[in-house]
Design a protein that fits this description.
single chain, 141 residues, alpha+beta, three-stranded mixed β-sheet, 6 strands, elongated
């Protein structure tokens, strides 16, 4: 896996990432840090990546289990250390999964499997952060 970061000098502290798969992602900083608030902060991007990684796992696990999953969202809340490096110290993931006849136990198992076995992002963040999760299952209309 590769990624190249380019500073965009005309945009203050904006950074443009070009991923190995050929996609572009822009990040920026807060005005008090020289940024112009034009894009997500790098740490927000890291948090979003963790959410995307685990949601991907949960949906895939449920689909492989032949469950009728229709939607999945993850609301992430993180706390960071007060001193540099300001790593994540606590991370809570709230999963809202919608489907037809989805058993609560199956969704909880998918979340646990993602956290314990598959999600590389939360595995790395778990080295510095206490990670907790909650699950809400909704019936599709």
């Amino acid at each position: 896996m590769e990624c190249t970061i380019h500073w965009v000098p005309d945009a203050g502290m904006a950074m443009m990432a070009v991923t190995g798969s050929g996609h572009t992602l822009v990040m920026d900083g807060a005005p008090e840090g020289g940024g112009r608030n034009l894009a997500p902060r790098p740490m927000e991007t890291l948090l979003a990546g963790a959410g995307g990684c685990t949601a991907y796992d949960v949906v895939l696990i449920l689909k492989r289990g032949r469950h009728d999953v229709r939607d999945c969202s993850v609301q992430l809340k993180a706390e960071r250390a007060d001193t540099d490096p300001k790593v994540f110290t606590k991370l809570h993931l709230h999963f809202v999964v919608t489907g037809k006849g989805l058993p609560q136990a199956a969704v909880e198992r998918a979340v646990a499997l993602s956290h314990e076995k598959y999600c590389s992002a939360t595995a790395m963040l778990g080295r510095t952060a206490e990670i907790t999760a909650s699950v809400e299952v909704k019936e599709a209309a």
